[in-house]
What we know:
Aspartate Aminotransferase, domain 2, Aspartate Aminotransferase, domain 1, seven-stranded mixed sheet, 14% strand, globular, binds pyridoxal-5'-phosphate
Amino acid sequence: MIQSVNPVPAFDIKQQYTTIEAEVSAAVLEVLASGRYIGGPMVEGFEQQFAAYNGVTECIACNSGTDALYLALRALEIGAGDEVITTPFTFIATSEVISAVGAKPVFVDIDAMTFNLDLEQTAAAITPKTKAIIPVHLFGQPVDMTALMAIAQSYNLSVIEDCAQSTGASWDNQKVGSIGHIGCFSFYPTKNLGGCGDGGAITTNDQAIATKLRILRDHGSKIRYIHEEIGVNSRLDALQAAILQIKLRYLDIWNERRRAIATYYYQFLSQIPVLTPPQELPGGTGVWNQYTIRASGEERNGSSAKYRDWVRTQLQERGVSSMVYYPKPLHLQPVYQNLGYQPGDLPVAEQTCHEVISLPMFPELTEEQLNKVVYALKDCLG
Ligand SMILES: *Cc1c(COP(=O)(O)O)cnc(C)c1O
């Protein structure tokens, strides 16, 4: 067995910081000296730059990706008695906000190749109570937005894109978050555009929705101390905005590097029969927040989850870290027992949770580290 002196981490955000340390330090000190810590020119500047980057007219910065999704539902006045369709194979935040506004999440199975919502089943799940669809561009891979918008339009539904993992991705040359009615972004440190703390943003081309969002994020208030509705406190700090302004300038370079890494992985991993590496749909340009493969060889270890865990142990022993996003689908989470889903209801998502392994993926991965990952997989599986 190879002794791992320097294990390859699944992600490494400290290293990215060292490449832009001088710029970030100067910007942070400038904010500290300015005395404008909440709102102000840094935040407004970032909102304008992020809107321009995504090709939309409006950007509303807020405290997190979760808040962005919550505020989007509130702005669309979705609540008790309404249904919102989404995927069971995502982070809990996507469906948590549906429950938080009092609406009912309706989970639809995923497509095995893209890990994203199955659009035929999405159309079939629409009822008179359905008000919106929340597609997630999972792992940075865009949903077929042409097909999804056609479904939404024919049933007069709103589309809120969960772009938390896909900042910079595009479908048919349009940035995700600019195609649906509202786009929701997260600047959590491990996302493609990550701050040094929590942060989020909402994009839209609808000025009326934007106005509502600005009121909701600021305690339901347009004029100070006059409150029109129950809102929240969800603002982006000036410090985060200053850091994000700098990082936005590097985002395309970093995403290109992620794409090159994905191409490299595909070239080698598609030759290993028990592995299924991810592929892009024609029309989609993904940004690979995660590089997630399937390991399916249950005959070797009795069950698919055990086989996947065995592969991960083999990788760990060869100095390669990996992650499981996500081990349990949302429709089978304890918190959603009241919705009445049973194991077997959404079989593709359930099987996927047993098979997935997310390999090291971040722009600063070196050739040597990539070789180590590929060699480790070939060594134990090839
Ligand atoms: C990270 C994430 C969120 C939530 O973002 P936060 O900024 O952590 O609140 C929502 N949806 C998906 C798919 C995510 O990955």
